Amino acid sequence: MTTRYAALLRGINVGGHKKVPMAELRQLLTDLGHGDVATYLQSGNAVFTSDSDDENATCAALERAIEQRFGFGVDCLVRSGPYLRAVAEACPFPAASLEGKQLHAIYLSKPVDPERLASIDAAAYLPDEFRFGDRVLYLYVPNGLGRSKLAEALGKPSLFKGVVTTSRNWNTVVKLVELTRE
């Protein structure tokens, strides 16, 4: 059975660092045996089909191939279309009435115990808020991510030690759902 996936690459093409041209990423995914490959934006979003039903193995192969091709490591997450749709549908915030820049999904490589974030005084960051989902943290930032002190607090590496995280604004979340429909 063929599965449609999205690969979410973390921290590429930002400020001239870790340059991964999208045409080369598409070719790399094709070389790995994946089909119907497309990319979205320059920030490390690719969609493809695969005969593999193992997200982790697909992700590990992509990370190895990126390091071999480009000479640097890039953390990736690979998620199926149904998972991405479930994340969008489970959003605890009124996504349809918000601008894309006000809502973000921080995808997590594995489930995280909410106790990890117990040190964050959520009330101190209002009106910014976050909620946990299935391997995702929903982040509502009404004034944008760049002005959010909560986003800054959540970005501390110690909070997610041992967990790969990568964030996408809601416009990208919705587009990836659309691109991974089977």
From TrEMBL:
<dbReference type="InterPro" id="IPR012545">
    <property type="entry name" value="DUF1697"/>
</dbReference>
<dbReference type="Pfam" id="PF08002">
    <property type="entry name" value="DUF1697"/>
</dbReference>
<protein>
    <submittedName>
        <fullName>DUF1697 domain-containing protein</fullName>
    </submittedName>
</protein>
